[in-house]
Amino acid sequence: MANFSTKMLGIVGTAFVFAGMSFGQLNCSSAAAGPNTVRAESANDVAGDIYVTCGPANGNVLPAAGLINIQLFAPTGVTFTSKVLDTTNGYTEAVAWHSGAGGATVRGNYAAANAVLGTISPSGNALNFIGIPAPVNGTYKIEISNIRLNTSGLSVTTGAPPAVNLTPVVSGGAVFQASLSSQQVAIVQYALGGASNAKGFAVNTPGAGSNNFVVCKTYNPAAVAGSTVLPIDPTVATVIRVQENFTTAFRAAVTEGSPLQFPGVGVPTNGTPLPAIGANTNAPSTNTRFKVTFANVPPNVSLYTVQGAIASTSNGVAVTGLATAQLTTSETGAFAAATAVTLNGNAGFAAIPVSAGAATAVFDITNPDPNTLDSFFIPIYSVITAGSVTPTATAFTATVTMGPTGSPANQPNFNASAGSTVTLTGSKYSACSTSLLFPFVTNQLGFDTGIAIANTATDPFGANGAGGNSGGTCTLNFYGQGAPSPANSTTANIPSGTVWALPVSGVAAGFQGYVIAQCAFQYAHGFAFITNGVGVNGGLSQGYLAGVIPDVNQINRAAGVGEILGN
Known about the structure:
Layout: H1 2-18, E1 26-32, E2 36-39, E3 45-46, E4 50-56, E5 67-73, E6 79-80, E7 84-86, E8 91-92, E9 95-97, E10 115-117, E11 119-120, E12 126-133, E13 140-145, E14 148-150, E15 163-171, E16 178-179, E17 183-189, E18 192-198, E19 213-214, E20 238-244, E21 289-295, E22 301-306, E23 310-311, E24 313-314, E25 317-318, E26 324-328, E27 341-343, E28 346-352, E29 354-355, E30 358-367, E31 375-384, E32 397-403, E33 422-425, E34 429-430, E35 434-442, E36 448-455, E37 474-481, E38 488-490, E39 499-503, E40 512-519, E41 524-531, E42 541-545, E43 547-549
Parallel strand pairs: 2-17, 19-34
Antiparallel strand pairs: 1-4, 3-14, 4-13, 5-12, 5-15, 6-14, 7-8, 9-10, 9-13, 11-12, 15-16, 15-17, 18-20, 20-31, 21-30, 21-32, 22-28, 22-31, 23-26, 24-25, 26-30, 27-28, 29-30, 32-33, 35-40, 35-43, 36-39, 36-41, 37-38, 37-40, 41-42
């Protein structure tokens, strides 16, 4: 293909050299049908058509039929990506055609004898149409259609969107060689208006505002009331909002650029037989899609979303008649709905397969709405089994891009590294723990303090209870006068349903201050009893319940935040 393209460039160069030797040549001018809005992430969006009109110069009449060559040149950062239909010769779907002398161009109404398929230069910045037949006399208009562009190399910043202008250069025996005026064929905007964490990208741990999973407890998604009405409560699911940036960014395949379909009438002057009607070999492959790619998903964590159609929403509330998106099983190829599964007695979910900590959910825009800015709230449910997940220091992430990516044969095809790509930080998986505060502990002036810690995960509440755990140890951290060195000690294992107790004199003789106990299990509770002796010689004594410090994996204990202790 590269050698062929090089030969085509050589032919054009030769045509330039001998252009001035012809007589009765035509003058040409250029115009544009109007710019299409193309997506900055796209590798092959369709630009607007270009017209090249040629007629006799100074009243001259062309004495014999001739040929014309047209090259289109793209600006820096833009390349031509029209679909290749003939890999042997490099002929693409891009076509230059006319209806004959004096004929009005009607898009798609042309004879193959007046059509030439384009080839793309090795650099990608030139689209070449070689040997377009010119009529014996009269004025005629050449229309160039199916110009696909890769605009993902452009810088799209705030302010007015950039425009793409193509420059036609004409040569050949039938015309005066000339570089014609550049024509605007595209306006470039991001398709994604952004992706955000709806309600804070929290996960389904108990309590509003929580951010991380606790790995010793089993979590299952709550019921979803209908497949098109989404929960956006952060205690139920991670919710990712995917926003359209302009009203026609999300498209059905039938409107995905509307490339010219060949009517299949013979063989172009320089090309291969045009596809027959209905073959549509250059038709778009799929609707617009977007995908959410997850990373750092720990082993034994399963991800789910809703299986049915998700309606475009206004502030999280589905609105009848707007666009819909639905999970599909493949990034390319025809839409295929994922298998519906039931979780915890609730129907209408679909699994997002996880492999080696990575997962991808692809959503097909099954019904775009060209009159609104589509906005989808995508719920992601994380389901873990008690005690099966290792705590992680790294949060899992979700990256939102247009789709498909990296599939040149697919129309549409997008660049995953485009500027609208958004990576959202999700949740970490924290170890089960309880932190207890004993605000006053002493072993001075004849006093001693007894500390008791109970593992209360064994309870009578069945499915609504704590669920039990295998227990664990507690680390006692001493702060104050006479703190031991090291200033912490570890208890024995405290199984669920048991109590551990020890006097402070046994671990920190001479200490007075406060103690924070970090227990490696949930549902720990503490009690302290201070006394200066018992029996006939006993004196003052006092007991109190230890305060339960809110889990710092869920609520920040930073200065200024404040806290409310539990018991």
